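does this look right to u?? nicotinamide-adenine-dinucleotide version
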Amino acid sequence: MGALPLLRAHVSRPVTTSPRDFETTSLPESLTVLNPATEEVVAEIPTVSPEQVAVAVERAAKAQQAWAALAPGDRARLLRRFADGVDARIDELADLEVTEAGHTLGNARWEAGNARDLLEYAAGGVERLIGRQIPVAGGLDVTFHEPLGVVGVIAPWNFPMPIAAWGFAPALAAGNAVLLKPAETTPLTALLLQDIALAAGLPEGLFQVLPGHGRITGQAIVDHPGVRKIVFTGSTPVGKEIMSRCASGLKRVTLELGGKSPNIVFADADLQRAAASAPMAFLDNSGQDCCARTRILVQREVYDDFLALVAPAIEAVRVGDPRDAATEMGPLISAVQRDRVRSYLTDDVPVLARGKAPEGPGFWQAPMLLAPEDAGCRAATEEIFGPVAVVLPFDDEADALRLANATRYGLSGSLWTRDIGRAVRMARGVNAGNLSVNSHSSVRYWTPFGGFGESGLGRELGPDALAHFTETKNVFISTED
Ligand code: NAD
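got this back:
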């Protein structure tokens, strides 16, 4: 059925590929993958039907039993080979990411490297997934981390490779099988990762990529009783729906959802540094970043000085061909996403900075900084998921905290101050899962990541990542005669 040999970088003519080992004849529809920088069709990918999902679950369950029975060192070795395979094909993976997602080449290479790093990190955890011995009278009490079985990973289009790997790498390392459903617009890197896993020697059926529509293929994975955990990254409404569907089978669920993160600049901050960071803190990945710092809150006494630094920097951001090394921002993923972003650009919200974007084919949107008078307006409260931020003034710490927490989300945020006490007070006060002080860095695979409020449920990454894919079993062994 050879899906992946047909996947090539820079394919400008339509190609047809199929998910490995599925009959293509009965597939209901296909996904048309476009290059968002050119609007050219780059691939047609058949979707996986609910019946095929059921077959995939059966195969995964069989593969999982053999996988969990392997010696930990052997499992770790195979995952390291998988990581090596990713490393050897970073250029190809990055190229596909640029082609299907419009990411800049530098970002795409980082993303493929992140998937490799995750696999290496998870492989290093296999032998460290240790239980405890708990003191009891009359016996020995020990805990085990048992794998869950089959895990469904439902990934979004904004960071297709890393976010898929945040789920599949620790899940596999903990002894589970994985069904990965990539987003409709970005299935190509996932299919190549599946090929790399097989070439590395992972058993058939252990890691299967099932492209398809969320409401058909995704839902079939969520609803299947043989799938014991769903790791979902995407929008908050879909996350809520998935959680309620998981409830009937008491399925484990991790949700990584949206964000509307603050970037809080105090008057005592290094303004040059804060201003240098602010544009890409919301424009990276064309603003299609759940951690994007899209609410810039600036202490009133430095508001004008700060904007005098930031506005020209936003206007100077180089938007264009994602393959050009000088490009800082590429296109949006789709026409739908571009139209959604534009719906927030209404005449009643003043524009403080307006960048440039190419004309013509491609889903382009210029960077924008808005200064709404009403902090409760749509642009200031809803996740736009595009290259648009708002700026709002504040008076003091209490006011900054009130504005920062005036959101139903709580994923990330940055604080800029030279006052260590203030940094700690603010970091403790902001309701968000990932905060950075004098930086806009959010994600390191070895530190925990996840959201407060409607930004999600549970945590990914970090030292506990593997344990999240296990059930703790307690065993008491009597020592009485
Ligand atoms: P989306 O919710 O539409 O889709 C995400 C994935 O879920 C896709 O694979 C889609 O096919 C699938 N899906 C959709 N409906 C489904 C259903 N009923 N059952 C099962 N699967 C279903 O989101 P999107 O448009 O792909 O991504 C954008 C959103 O994701 C933004 O809101 C963004 O903030 C959020 N996001 C969050 C994080 C995070 O880590 N917190 C990371 C990336 C994206």
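DSSP finds 14 helices and 18 strands in the chain. idk if thats expected tbh
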